[in-house]
Request: fold
Amino acid sequence: MTTPFDEEPHKKPGLFAGLRSSFLTGIVVIAPVGLTLWLLWTAMGWVDGVVLPLVPETFQPEKYIGINLRGVGLIIFFLFTIVVGWIAKGIIGRSLINFAESLVERMPVVRTVYSGIKQISETVFAQSERSFEKACLIQYPRRGIWAIGFISTTARGEVSDRAETGGDLMSVFVPTTPNPTSGFLLFFPKEDVIELDMSVEEAAKLVISAGLVYPNPKDPASPPE
Reply:
């Protein structure tokens, strides 16, 4: 005779439950790889569609091999970009760029578009040693609510001089979920910023996963005990 306090024997999962678990595990494995390959394949096709029409017919690879290989346009663009960058580093290249930019500065509408695109390109693609220093914890949007942030620099200039605080101000970028590339630039007193031991990459994973992936040396997919 059993009582309500007796432990129920461990039941093995049924066939349907096992198939469902295996299917979901397969999706977790296949989805990142498949989406990555699809995005790369699509990007190569888009670059080919833009670059190949600009290449003279004499140099079209399809003329010699008989088929249109995807990725040829990407290789041509890569080599062309390297050559342009090499020329731009020289004295003649810099002089030509300065002359072209001086002409652009005289065009009202073109000047605005060019300066905006140039600023974005320099921010995204320029090789620089500047990066987020540390991940941190701050109280935002009000006290009692905590948010992950990234410390960029110590505030300087007019921002630091005009802020009504007795100590240093920290420039903190507070990202949004699940897209950490957008967010808010906030300035916090240094004493209100709690630096975290986790790396910037680990904190970014935490933000992207909406709190589902915690940094853990033993098992990165589960919160630390």
The first strand starts at residue 134 and ends at 139. The domain at 134-208 is CATH 2.30.30 (SH3 type barrels.). The chain has a mean pLDDT of 82. Residues 15-51 form the longest helix (37 residues).
